[in-house]
């Protein structure tokens, strides 16, 4: 008869169970320990009880001397099948990316990489079927992209497979070398371009002038400018503590979680002191809340950058860690020509200027916060036609 069954973790594999069974055979206590293939304690106990009954029946049918205690009999548990890549991707996002508190920008980038590249190419494969050949498949399918972009896609795949190995879903991740990118210099604003941008922004008003200074003198990114708070500015120490940014309406720490101290130039200090404080953040909407879209500053500065370069439709250079500007905050973005400035008048109208094809459109008739007493380009700006006052401009 069975006297006792004890279920405990298996000492050689703590994620599995073993059953310690005590039986009474011909007045002697017999002990057997078996490694269980079952996933739970209740299922292990039932499995061990049935196995013990079969052993007792065998001993009764052919009575032979038995040892009171026998070494473990290892029953190999069946290896669970590896999940599909698309099934693991959802779990990886929730239990790794979001659980480890990656920034909203990082989460969005991971999701975009999965949605645009990895899931269409590898979604129906099992994790243990992904090897070096699948990396080459990704590279071949995305041969038209930049080498750095392809490396980032493969890096995310390597991270996912490394996590899968840590979670015991696959034996080990494949070892794949990255593509070697060609060395190139990151374009940045020259000092002359930076000064031209600042002086052009000054003509549009204090808000645009301040944003230009934060980009050119302070080197702040687009998201850091709209996330700047008055509490981050220390006028006594003469510095800005960059510790907050806004990405798609969510506030968080700067890129790479790195807080930095930026010294205030004299003109940036004066511009900040002269700027009105209406809320917690330096730049706010008309409702007093912080700006929640990262496209606001590029829309503001597309025509300012074009005018600073002396012609419409100039391409803004990439930003750099040493000299960023509001015009270059789009990071490799090419500005649309005559992109409308944000403001109450958003209607687009045919442009009357002969210098611009009739298929083009004009931005609003008047830029916001135009300095008092300054000549305002009415009707069609930033075209070459400028008028003494908005009322003197013909209707577009």
Structure description:
With 396 residues, this protein is of the alpha+beta class. The chain contains 10 helices and 10 strands. The protein has 4 domains: 2-61, no CATH class; 85-166, Tyrosine recombinase, N-terminal domain (DNA polymerase, domain 1, Orthogonal Bundle); 191-328, Orthogonal Bundle (hpI Integrase, Chain A), CATH 1.10.443.10; 347-368 and 377-383, no CATH class. Strands 1-2-3 form a 3-stranded antiparallel beta sheet, covered by helices on one side. Strands 4-5-8 form a 3-stranded antiparallel beta sheet, with no helix packed on it. The termini are far apart.
Which helices and strands occur, and which strands form pairs?
Elements: E1 2-10, E2 13-25, E3 28-36, H1 41-61, H2 85-98, H3 104-122, H4 132-141, H5 147-166, H6 191-204, H7 206-216, H8 222-226, E4 233-234, E5 239-242, E6 245-247, E7 250-252, E8 260-263, H9 266-274, H10 296-308, E9 349-350, E10 361-362
Helix pairs in contact: 2-3, 3-4, 6-7, 6-10, 7-9
Please give a quick description of this structure.
By secondary structure, this protein is an alpha+beta fold. Helices cover 34% and strands 13% of the residues. It has 4 domains: 60 residues, no CATH class; 82 residues, DNA polymerase, domain 1 (Orthogonal Bundle); 138 residues, Orthogonal Bundle (hpI Integrase, Chain A), CATH 1.10.443; 29 residues, no CATH class.
């Amino acid at each position: 008869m069975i006297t006792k069954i004890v279920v405990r973790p298996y000492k050689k594999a703590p994620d599995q169970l073993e059953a310690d069974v005590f039986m009474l055979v011909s007045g002697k206590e017999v002990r057997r320990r078996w490694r269980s293939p079952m996933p739970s304690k209740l299922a292990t106990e039932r499995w061990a009880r049935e196995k013990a009954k079969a052993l007792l029946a065998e001993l009764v049918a052919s009575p032979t001397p038995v040892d009171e205690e026998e070494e473990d009999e290892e029953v190999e548990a069946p290896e669970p099948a590896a999940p599909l890549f698309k099934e693991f991707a959802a779990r990886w996002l929730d239990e790794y990316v979001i659980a480890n508190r990656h920034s909203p920008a990082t989460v969005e980038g991971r999701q975009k990489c999965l949605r645009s590249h990895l899931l269409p190419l590898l979604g129906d494969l099992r994790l243990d079927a992904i090897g070096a050949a699948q990396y080459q498949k990704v590279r071949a399918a995305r041969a038209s992209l930049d080498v750095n972009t392809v490396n980032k896609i493969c890096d995310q795949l390597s991270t996912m497979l490394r996590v899968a190995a840590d979670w015991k879903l696959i034996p080990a991740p494949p070892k794949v070398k990255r593509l070697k990118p060609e060395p190139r210099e990151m374009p940045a604003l020259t000092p002359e371009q930076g000064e031209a941008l600042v002086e052009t922004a000054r003509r549009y008003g204090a808000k645009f002038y301040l944003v230009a200074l934060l980009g050119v003198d302070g080197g702040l990114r687009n998201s850091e400018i709209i996330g700047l708070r008055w509490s981050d500015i220390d006028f006594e120490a003469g510095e800005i503590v960059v510790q907050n940014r806004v990405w798609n309406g969510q506030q968080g720490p700067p890129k790479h979680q790195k807080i930095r101290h930026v010294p205030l130039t004299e003109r940036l200090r004066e511009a900040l002191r002269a700027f009105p404080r209406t809320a917690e953040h330096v730049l706010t909407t008309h409702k007093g809340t912080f700006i929640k879209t990262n496209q606001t500053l590029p829309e503001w500065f597309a025509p300012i950058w074009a005018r600073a370069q002396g012609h419409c439709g100039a391409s803004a250079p990439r930003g750099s860690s040493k000299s960023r500007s509001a015009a270059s905050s789009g990071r490799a973005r090419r500005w649309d020509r005559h992109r409308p400035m944000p403001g109450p008048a958003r209607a687009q109208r045919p442009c009357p200027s002969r210098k611009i094809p009739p298929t083009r459109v004009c931005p609003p008739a008047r830029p916001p916060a135009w300095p008092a007493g300054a000549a305002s380009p009415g009707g069609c700006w930033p075209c070459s036609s400028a008028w003494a006052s908005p009322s003197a401009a013909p209707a577009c």
